[in-house]
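We were asked to recover a plausible sequence for a given structure. The inputs and outputs are reproduced exactly as logged, with field labels preserved.

PROBLEM: sequence recovery
POSITIONS: 329
GIVEN STRUCTURE:
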């Protein structure tokens, strides 16, 4: 896993790299994101904290996304890949071009409220041991607000590795990371991962750094019908097992120090695999896989649902998305 940018992989449209580094680098990875891109960019330009740059990494779009980004002027540094790469690798390529003391992420269909960057930077500057700050996040579908991530339970502050592993509360577009926290890692986004690459990075930062959050919903996460994450449970299962194996390699004595987390990840992977089996019409096999984990409320809900045909998945996924966080753990 490399953290450098091969020169052949990009074409820079940045006119001047000699300027002083900004406090915040905003990473925007884009692949044919023109539909909502102006709204996302406008929300950065509306920030009360103005010392920022956007590193806009266009992943070989075929729409007008790069032209839209370039039209916003020199604060948006546009890089265009010659070929599409997986998102984790594309995020690493963009990170390698960043210059800020703090790194924020904004997906091209999400939106920030005006004080997001200002409030996050303030928390970093209050405590030098904080490595990551997120905000509450409002989920919306363009017409109405669906829910908020912190609606029922706010996360904990400080050294919260165990808690974050149990309940991943950080939405990608809400996250801001101290550059020093990234520098201390042996790799950034794990390029083997395609659906869990964000969580994996956040877990590794939480192992060594404090986490903090802004309780206001300063990030808006656009939900497109049934989010594609719900359609990738088999891939989630595989990647959850990769993360467990990685933790065991990175942190000697992991099973002895964190037996609850090892068991949690094993149960999580079994649940994800069972959902994939059920969607493919193998409800009985899914139930067999999950029966050893029936002490979980989430598993019991699924065991009941698995007697329905797999075609009910889309409807149940929408209901699942609205469950309290404690039932989705």
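RECOVERED SEQUENCE:
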């Amino acid at each position: 896993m490399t953290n450098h940018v091969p020169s052949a992989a990009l074409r820079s449209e940045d006119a001047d790299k000699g300027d002083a580094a900004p406090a915040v680098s905003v990473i925007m990875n884009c692949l044919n994101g023109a539909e909502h891109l102006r709204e996302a960019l406008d929300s950065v330009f509306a920030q009360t904290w103005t010392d920022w740059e956007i590193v806009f990494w266009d992943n070989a779009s075929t729409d007008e996304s790069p032209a839209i980004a370039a039209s916003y002027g020199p604060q948006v540094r546009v890089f265009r890949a010659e070929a599409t790469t997986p998102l984790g690798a594309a995020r690493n390529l963009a990170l390698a071009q960043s210059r800020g003391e703090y790194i924020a992420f904004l997906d091209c269909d999400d939106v920030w409220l005006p004080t997001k960057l200002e409030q996050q930077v303030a928390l970093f500057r209050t405590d030098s041991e904080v490595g990551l700050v997120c905000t509450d996040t409002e989920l919306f579908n363009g017409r109405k607000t669906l829910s908020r991530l912190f609606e029922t339970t706010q996360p904990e502050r400080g050294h919260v590795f165990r808690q974050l592993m149990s309940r991943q509360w950080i939405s990608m577009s809400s996250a801001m990371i101290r550059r020093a926290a990234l520098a201390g890692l042996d790799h950034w986004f794990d390029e083997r991962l395609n659906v869990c690459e964000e969580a994996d990075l956040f877990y590794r930062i939480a192992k060594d750094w404090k986490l903090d959050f802004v309780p206001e919903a300063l990030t808006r996460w656009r939900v497109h019908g049934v989010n594609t994450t719900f359609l990738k449970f088999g891939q989630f299962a595989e990647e959850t097992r990769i993360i467990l194996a990685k933790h065991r390699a990175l942190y000697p004595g992991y099973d002895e120090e964190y037996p609850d987390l090892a068991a949690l990840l094993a149960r999580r992977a079994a649940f994800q695999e069972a959902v994939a089996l059920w969607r493919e019409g193998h409800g009985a096999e899914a139930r067999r896989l999950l029966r050893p984990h029936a002490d979980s409320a989430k598993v019991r809900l699924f065991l009941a649902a698995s007697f329905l045909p797999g075609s009910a998945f889309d409807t149940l996924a929408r209901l699942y998305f609205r469950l309290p966080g404690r039932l989705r753990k």
